[in-house]
């Protein structure tokens, strides 16, 4: 099992006397945590789940533009290239940044049939917004995949196949600023001079809002749509620029408070009267929508819904002038149907199909595509997207009046190939399981040939394991000091600030300090207890929440529960010296581990990090903010099993952080009454009547330790909590 090492037997040094009640609890101790001792931060404790949908390319292109891209914390970006031709392709990749940064260029050669995957994070480094231009001779097929933990709360991924040329005009049918949605417009200017662009937001009400921006030469500009038009609005967008640019629209979401993720689409350079969508389903766990943008006078649209049994349904809708219309496909055709759609309109319109899902009850997210204005007889995909953790499908639609003979080829890097032949009737759709079809092939890619024009898409659903080591980042400030997040960005599940108890575990006043959260406030449920100098109107990373009052008499941001999965590495938030790495009794009843760190430059103040299954430091050790691993996050579920966290819907495991003023605790080098632990020492905990008994064991480096932690009833958390549904509340 990943992350576990061999456990060697160890004997307790002598008998331990236990009360009758403690003996009665020994059966519960079988729920002990067995975790490896942390040697260093790992690539990621948990995967990022989501999905994306790739529209096929009808042929190779010599130039491909991607407007969106970033290597900020929580984002991992890839370029997936394929040379489907018979000659070697010379490829130049240019990475463009916002001014005043200069572009970066890399070159490579792709042999016939060869492919390659470029991690943009590795090429340009961390913390950069980037657009890409790919020039190839002869042409190639390219995709840009992005996987993310957006602001530390919404995981997912998106994909685009780019565009072959810039344009002065771009259209987007979908877009919303409803609760749980964050929309952006990314503009790429590949020219040598600055470009002025006007964005027209066409709301569902018929109202139009305009915004003018300047895009610097050889750079990109990002527009916050939520800020531009305000909340709770559905919108289509038209971009008009003085010179050709490239426009893309990423959206990140918490869909209906249930499914998180993101999707992106490159705009359309024109409108049309015919649009096709090969993919679509109303099966359980899927919600499909159609967004129709009409920038002209009122018109009608005739939609034909095509099913796998060859049957179809036709419906007609009125499209208001200069507005967008949204249709729920689930409502239109009913549940449990795989469906393709053709749209025919009396006027020039744009159509887009967003889908949101909980795939196999384990992968939630969403994806979107623009419709195709016409079919093609050839389709290419640079990858079959069937690697570990990925499930991909090929959706084919025959919108014409002729029967189509279709050959689907999966080609491996070693020259092997799998071929399947399909016969598609008019107005029919078919689905191919790419994972099953690609068995035995190395790094397969897809080529489709048909005797009549068809439309092809490749939806994928994934559980992606993050690979890029994130940079340290600030989650709060205090007294001019930036506190680095104790959980790495790839493992972060949200920051939840709350009131801390006025007294410490030793009965003395904690003198907990007020923290100023950093990033974007997603929700403040305790404004009445906010310290007057604390603000919640900033933006940026990460996202955070402020919990409702616990009635503790302190301010609402005196502590923060930094959420993650159990087993995540805990990093020191400050530079300083370890005062203690010790066991203690949480609420006087629950064995727990904590690390206390005196803060450099702030005599008498220390930072406390609680809820660890192991500690990686010892008293007197120096630690560095955002870099030194001090322990691992503990599984709190057995102790506070009161339901998922109300903000993240995760289990609620976290490390608790607060800053205390306790000059009486000294430098940490003198003797303490706590139960000290360290990187080569572990303890076995036994709960008695209101006290803690321990026996120390010596552990060799890189060995495991055992914590026997009983589950107790009558949780004091429940006694101090009010109207909260949480697994842990310290």
Summarize the topology.
Blueprint: H1 20-24, E1 33-35, E2 48-55, E3 61-66, E4 75-82, E5 89-96, E6 104-110, E7 115-119, H2 120-124, E8 131-150, E9 154-160, E10 167-172, E11 181-189, E12 195-203, E13 208-215, E14 219-224, H3 225-229, E15 235-255, E16 259-266, E17 272-277, E18 286-294, E19 299-307, E20 312-319, E21 323-328, H4 329-333, E22 339-359, E23 363-370, E24 376-381, E25 390-398, E26 404-411, E27 417-424, E28 428-433, H5 434-437, E29 445-464, E30 474-478, E31 481-484, E32 495-498, E33 516-517, E34 520-524, E35 543-546, E36 559-563, E37 569-571, E38 576-586, E39 590-599, E40 605-615, E41 622-623, E42 629-633, E43 654-661, E44 675-676, E45 681-687, E46 692-698, E47 705-707, H6 716-720
Parallel strand pairs: 32-35, 34-35
Antiparallel strand pairs: 1-47, 2-29, 3-8, 4-7, 4-8, 5-6, 5-8, 8-9, 10-15, 11-14, 11-15, 12-13, 12-15, 15-16, 17-22, 18-21, 18-22, 19-20, 19-22, 22-23, 24-29, 25-28, 25-29, 26-27, 26-29, 30-31, 30-33, 32-36, 36-43, 37-42, 38-39, 38-41, 38-44, 39-40, 40-42, 40-43, 45-46
Structural account:
The protein is mostly beta strands and 730 residues long. The chain has 2 domains: 20-43 and 467-720, Distorted Sandwich (Glucose Permease (Domain IIA)), CATH 2.70.70.10; 48-464, no CATH class. 4% of the residues lie in helices and 49% in strands. The protein contains 6 helices and 47 strands. The strands form 8 sheets. Strands 32, 34, 35, 36, 37, 38, 39, 40, 41, 42, 43 and 44 form a 12-stranded mixed beta sheet that branches. Strands 2, 24, 25, 26, 27, 28 and 29 form a 7-stranded antiparallel beta sheet that branches. Strands 3, 4, 5, 6, 7, 8 and 9 form a 7-stranded antiparallel beta sheet that branches. A hairpin with a 4-residue loop joins strand 12 and strand 13. The longest helix has 5 residues, at 20-24.
């Amino acid at each position: 099992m990943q992350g576990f090492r061999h456990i060697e037997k160890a004997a307790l040094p002598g008998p331990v006397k236990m009360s009758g009640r403690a003996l009665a609890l020994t059966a519960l101790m079988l729920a002990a945590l067995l975790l490896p001792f942390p040697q260093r931060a790992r690539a990621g404790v948990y995967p990022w789940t989501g999905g994306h949908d790739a529209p096929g390319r009808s042929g190779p292109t010599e130039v491909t533009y991607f407007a969106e891209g970033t290597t900020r914390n929580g984002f991992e970006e890839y370029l997936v290239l394929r040379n489907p031709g018979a000659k070697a392709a010379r490829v130049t990749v240019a990475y463009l940044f916002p001014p005043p940064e200069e572009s970066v260029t890399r070159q490579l050669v792709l042999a016939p049939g060869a492919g390659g995957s470029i991690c943009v994070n590795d090429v340009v480094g961390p913390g950069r917004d980037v657009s890409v231009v790919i020039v190839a001779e002869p042409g190639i097929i390219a995709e840009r995949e992005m996987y993310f933990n957006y602001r530390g709360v919404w995981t997912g991924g998106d994909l685009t196949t780019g565009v072959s040329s810039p344009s002065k005009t771009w259209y987007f049918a979908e877009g919303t600023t409803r609760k749980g949605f964050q929309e952006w417009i990314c503009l790429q200017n590949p020219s040598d001079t600055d470009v002025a662009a006007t964005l027209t937001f066409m709301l569902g009400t018929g109202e139009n809002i305009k915004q003018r921006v300047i895009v610097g030469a050889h750079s990109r500009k990002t527009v916050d749509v939520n800020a531009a038009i305000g909340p709770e609005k559905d919108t289509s967008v038209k971009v008009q620029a003085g010179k050709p640019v490239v426009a893309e629209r990423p959206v990140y979401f918490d869909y209906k408070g249930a499914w998180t993720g993101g999707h992106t689409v490159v705009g359309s350079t024109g409108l049309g009267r015919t649009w096709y969508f090969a993919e679509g389903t109303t099966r359980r766990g899927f919600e499909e929508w159609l967004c129709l943008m009409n920038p002209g006078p009122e018109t009608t649209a005739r939609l034909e819904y095509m099913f796998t049994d060859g049957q179809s349904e036709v419906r007609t809708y009125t499209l208001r002038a200069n507005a967008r219309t949204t249709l729920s496909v689930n409502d239109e055709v009913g549940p449990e149907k795989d469906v393709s759609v053709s749209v025919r309109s009396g006027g020039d319109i744009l159509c887009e199909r967003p889908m949101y899902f909980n795939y196999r009850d384990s992968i939630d997210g969403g994806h979107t595509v623009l419709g195709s204005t016409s079919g093609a007889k050839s389709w290419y995909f640079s990858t079959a997207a069937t690697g570990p953790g990925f499930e991909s499908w090929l959706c084919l639609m025959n919108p014409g009046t002729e029967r189509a003979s279709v050959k689907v080829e999966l080609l491996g890097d070693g020259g092997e190939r799998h071929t399947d032949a399909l016969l598609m009737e008019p107005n029919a759709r078919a689905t191919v399981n790419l994972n099953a079809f690609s068995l035995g092939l190395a790094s397969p890619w897809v080529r489709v040939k048909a005797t009549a024009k068809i439309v092809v898409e490749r939806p994928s659903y994934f559980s992606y394991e993050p690979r890029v080591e994130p940079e340290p980042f600030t989650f709060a400030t205090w007294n001019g000091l930036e506190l680095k997040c104790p959980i790495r960005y790839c493992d972060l599940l949200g920051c939840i600030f709350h009131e801390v108890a006025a007294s410490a575990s030793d009965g003395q006043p904690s003198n907990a300090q007020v923290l100023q959260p950093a990033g974007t406030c997603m929700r403040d449920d305790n404004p009445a207890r906010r310290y007057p100098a604390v603000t919640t109107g900033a933006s940026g990373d990460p996202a955070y929440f402020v919990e409702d009052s616990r009635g503790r008499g302190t301010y609402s941001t005196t502590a923060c529960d930094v959420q993650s999965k159990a087993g995540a590495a805990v990093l020191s938030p400050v530079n300083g010296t370890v005062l203690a790495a010790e066991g203690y009794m949480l609420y006087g009843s629950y064995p727990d581990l904590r690390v206390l760190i005196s803060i450099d430059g702030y005599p008498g103040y220390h930072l406390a990090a609680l809820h660890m299954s192991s500690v990686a430091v010892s008293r007197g050790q120096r630690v560095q903010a955002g870099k030194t691993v001090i322990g691992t996050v503990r599984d709190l579920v057995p102790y506070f099993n009161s339901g998922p966290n109300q903000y993240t819907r995760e289990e609620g495991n976290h490390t608790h952080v607060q800053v205390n003023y306790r000059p009486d605790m000294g430098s940490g080098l003198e003797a303490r009454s706590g139960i000290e632990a360290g990187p080569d020492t572990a303890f076995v905990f036994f709960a008695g009547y209101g006290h803690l008994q321990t026996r120390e064991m010596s552990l060799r480096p890189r060995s495991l330790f055992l914590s026997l932690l009983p589950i107790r009833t009558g949780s004091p958390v429940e006694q101090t909590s009010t109207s909260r549904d949480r697994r842990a509340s310290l």
